[in-house]
Amino acid sequence: MNDLTQLNYELNNFVAALTLNAPPVNALNDELTLALDRISEMDEVRVVVLTGAGKVFCAGADLKGRASVIKGPGDLPAHSRRTRECFHAVRECAKPVICAINGAALGSGVAMAKPIRLVVPFPAGGATDLMARTVGQKLAERLGQAVIIDKQAGAGGGIGAEAVATSAPDVYTLLFATMGSLTVHS
């Protein structure tokens, strides 16, 4: 891991500490993908802690550096794809990755800091629960972001619907319900 220039790596008691070290915003870069791919195959690592140097955890894609790599057609989608690969590397790492948010998380950095909450207003084991788990898994795979299935059963779906209706309007809380519960409680 001595070849990394924007990422610090330390190993202590089976814990790999990765520190994004590209001040001032610790933008995502290809080194994170490379490091996590390597760590996936390292027996001496059992868990990864990802953090940022300085006052910012991560501000997402490198917008300042993007100008130097976008020179023609296809360069912007390729840059965006490399940024998404960072999320896939976190999600696909064979070792658990814990994000230790030490400061501001902006842009794509928010996605690593805050999971999507999928509220299911019905009891576990039913058709709605099973469908929500399937959709949640596919959402996580597609977005490269954690999805938490939150059971809020009761009152014919009303408790879960109320929880979502009164949550912060931040697009991270979603309701997974049936038409019946939406029409009764709308």
Automatic annotation (TrEMBL):
UniProt xrefs under InterPro entries: BUG (IPR005064), Bug_dom1 (IPR042100), ClpP/crotonase-like_dom_sf (IPR029045), Enoyl-CoA_hydra/iso (IPR001753)
SUPFAM superfamilies: ClpP/crotonase
Superkingdom, taxonomy of origin: Bacteria
A Pfam family this chain is assigned to: TctC
Database matches in PANTHER family: BLR1237 PROTEIN, TRICARBOXYLATE-BINDING PROTEIN
Membership in a protein family: Belongs to the UPF0065 (bug) family.
Protein name, UniProt field: Tripartite tricarboxylate transporter substrate-binding protein
Source species of the chain: Variovorax robiniae
